[in-house]
Amino acid sequence: MSNFFKKGRTGRLVLLSLSVVIIAFGFWFSGTNAYTFMKGYWLYKTTEPQTEVAFANKPDQTANRPASLYSVRPEQGEMIGNLTIPKLNANLPIYHGTDEDELEKGVGHFAGSVLPGEKDNSVLSGHRDTVFRQLGNVGKGDLLVVTTNAGKFTYKIRKTRFVDANDRTVIVPKPRATLTVTTCYPFDFIGDAPERYILIADLIE
Questions:
Q1: Is 109 an annotated catalytic residue?
Q2: Which of 17, 151, 188, 198 is deepest in the core (most CB within 10 A)?
Q3: Per the UniProt record, which residue ranges are transmembrane (predicted)?
Q4: Would the pTM count as exceeding 0.90?
């Protein structure tokens, strides 16, 4: 009988410990998502468009690139401009690079692609739960406006795509000035999302 009570007490202690761990995890997870949501909301509502963006005063080190709208290339982590999404009334900062450091601050510009306004494929990425949390409301026919120190470039969305997370076709070269905007999908997925939501837009102005 004594062993029975000991086993019962041990079982209750294990269940109690598991309950405490689950509750603590719930508070941590909720707090993390709340922080992410508030950061995204703040970026959406407080970022103002900036038309003057200074690049580092270093010469273009990419010898094989054709003549560019930009006299110098940006450094990793530099703010290079603003992305305006008229349909969402959103103005979002764009940073050169797509590491977590850049994506935490705003929209990231894939460094292996051309800069906005140039001929070829300029690729922008952002988190679905911060800067691009409403991107699902944007689609074919809507406008995307990028402002940099080279000017103001207006793109019209030609099509949308859903691709696997590892699909590299979104960064392939294009024959004309194109803006490709990508974010994780589904938008309400918890954890690493398996797909990407893609906007493909052509330069019209």
A1: no
A2: 198
A3: 12-29
A4: no
